[in-house]
Amino acid sequence: MVEEIPVKKQQNTEIRAEDFRITEEPFYLPAGNEAVLFQAAYDARLPVMLKGPTGCGKTRFVQHMSFRLGRPLITVACHEDLFVSDLVGRYILKNDETVWRDGPLTTAVRMGAICYFDEIVEARKDTTVVIHPLTDDRRTLYIDKKGEVIPAHPDFLLVISYNPGYQSVLKDMKQSTRQRFTALTFDYPAAEHEITIICKEAGVDQETADRLVRLGTRIRNIREHGLTEGASTRLLIYAARLIRQGVAGADACRAAICQPLTDDEGLQETLDDLVKDLF
Ligand code: ADP
């Protein structure tokens, strides 16, 4: 006879909201009224979609708002092998017992955290569907394996990020999902803002930051000629950090900006010309 393993439906008492709380204010330079809009969406408990290219400040904004709202932040980096059980949880074997372990989404729903799905279109379509009942009036999470419906904590908020630049049939978000969110649009910061951000994040002088921003702007302008995405603020900051470490400007730009952007040799030459012009 097969011995039955006792099932103990216990919660993860070891997971504490404090572990997900942001204790120091993350630096965020606003582009417009995004903080006001986010605050209003939060007050109305409306789910939020952050649209914009990679590396332009979406994640930093969510961190900043989580701090301002005093809510813990649970981030899920989406990828194509992300299964429903990775989000809601699964039964695991622990000391000869089968115990339930909440996934990050369930944890956020129970504790009233802000749950941030980074790059939602990367996730499998069937995985995305579990968030649907959380995004409308129901505000519930259904755990199939336990047959349990969990009402979301009153402070819970769902936030997703989405890069419209990657648009293809496979990577586009379904209308049935996207029409469940209020949307805030992000883009690369305006030049003078980006200079301030680079100076602050990388500790370089104004002149260096200014050159990097000019390079970034020029690269963004050649986007149509084969580059799928422009140079992100993140990459400009990386180049600035290399320069801060003593790397020569042109080498820093090649390593942190040009090479990560493309493998195309023709484009590399074009980018190199832009770098030589400025460094
Ligand atoms: P995304 O989530 O859009 O891919 P991030 O939020 O990770 O991008 O942004 C990349 C980096 O750019 C951040 O770590 C931060 O250093 C910087 N950054 C971009 N925009 C801002 C901003 N408005 N204020 C402060 N830092 C910013």
From TrEMBL:
The keyword Cell membrane does not apply. Pfam families: AAA_5, CbbQ_C. The lineage of its organism: Bacteria, Pseudomonadati, Thermodesulfobacteriota, Desulfobacteria, Desulfobacterales. It comes from Desulfosudis oleivorans (strain DSM 6200 / JCM 39069 / Hxd3) (Desulfococcus oleovorans). Transmembrane segments: none annotated. Residues 47-181 form the ATPase dynein-related AAA domain. PANTHER family: DENITRIFICATION REGULATORY PROTEIN NIRQ (PTHR42759:SF7), MOXR FAMILY PROTEIN (PTHR42759). InterPro entries: ATPase_dyneun-rel_AAA, CbbQ/NirQ/NorQ/GpvN, CbbQ_C, P-loop_NTPase. This is ATPase associated with various cellular activities AAA_5. Residues 194-277 form the CbbQ/NirQ/NorQ C-terminal domain. Belongs to the CbbQ/NirQ/NorQ/GpvN family. Keywords: ATP-binding, Nucleotide-binding. It comes from the Bacteria. GO terms for molecular function: ATP binding; ATP hydrolysis activity.
